[in-house]
Amino acid sequence: MAILVDADTRVLCQGMTGWAGTHHTALMMDYGTRVVAGVTPGKGGRHHLNVPVFDRVAPAVAETGANASMIFVPPAQAAAAMIEAIEAGVGLVVAVTERVPVMDMVRVRAALKGSGTRLVGPNSQGILAPGLAKIGVMGTGSERPGSVGIVSRSASLTTEIVDQITRAGLGQSTTVGVGGDPIHGIGMAECLDLFFADPDTEAVVLIGELGGTEEQEAAEFLQSTGLKKPVIAYLAGRHAPPERRMGHAGTITLHGRGDVVAKTAALRAAGVTVVSGAHRVGETVRQVLGAAAR
Fold it and tell me: Catalytic residues per the record (predicted)?
């Protein structure tokens, strides 16, 4: 079992006919993901990668039964694409596009209220349920089906830690990239809740970084609900200089907010095992699960 996706998830890709959309949709199909449609305005009625292309999301959903969308359109059009998918009733939207304008995301957040849609991203590497499906751009090859859930703000660290967990003799139930942009869809706390409810997930790895308040919100969630399964965290950016943007929009500390020291303290107070080096995550998960089994 996985969270958010399974082998029956039917995916459409908004922006599939562009280079990046074509490349990553083909990789998703090779992995076994059920891609049933593409959506590109002006190209409806064609076939691309042997699936039908539609001008709009709503008819694509009506004709193919798609229940998930991957968004692969430029930042200026990404919010409109997300809102179109939300209004079409798509249950899961994964937005890979990064640097979507903040005010555009405010409109997206307003559209999500009262809807039945879960948004992952933008600026997300996607969702991977090993052996079942992947929606996004993450590399594959070292993942294995297993019982460790991963929620992450870092694509490259996710790939590294997936490999560590596999080499530790374990596997992953699902990996979820919540996205690095400052305003995004589901957060770490909601992912923890989903993993706690998943009977096949025995432990959760949280990969955070400096900037934003995701990790503190996750700590507050754990303080309120209790630690229902072991949570192991690694937070990148301990030695980053303050008040300097590091890499992407969400990675910055200002006036003492968003620094790794405060995030680490909050998570440890909530009962989370926080490791000091990314290279220690896989072995720590193995030890924690071994201790829990004794």
Answer: 248 (tele-phosphohistidine intermediate)
Instruction: Indicate the DSSP class of residue 229.
Output: S
Beta strands 47-48; 51-54: pairing state:
antiparallel
226 to 80, 81, 176, 189, 252: CA distances (angstroms): 38, 37, 22, 12, 29
- The sign of the torsion formed by the CA atoms of 81, 83, 85, 87 equals negative
Positive/negative CA dihedral, 235, 240, 246, 250 = positive
d(CA 163, CA 194): 23
End-to-end CA distance of the chain: 24
60-81 per-position pLDDT tens digit: 999 999 999 999 999 999 999 9
CA 262 to CA 188: how far, in whole Å? Answer: 17
Pairing state between β 47-48 and 34-39: unpaired
Query: Looking at the chain, how many residues does it have?
Result: 294
Tokens 């959903």, located at residue: 61
Name the catalytic one among 24, 248, 255, 279. Answer: 248
23 noted as active-site residue: no
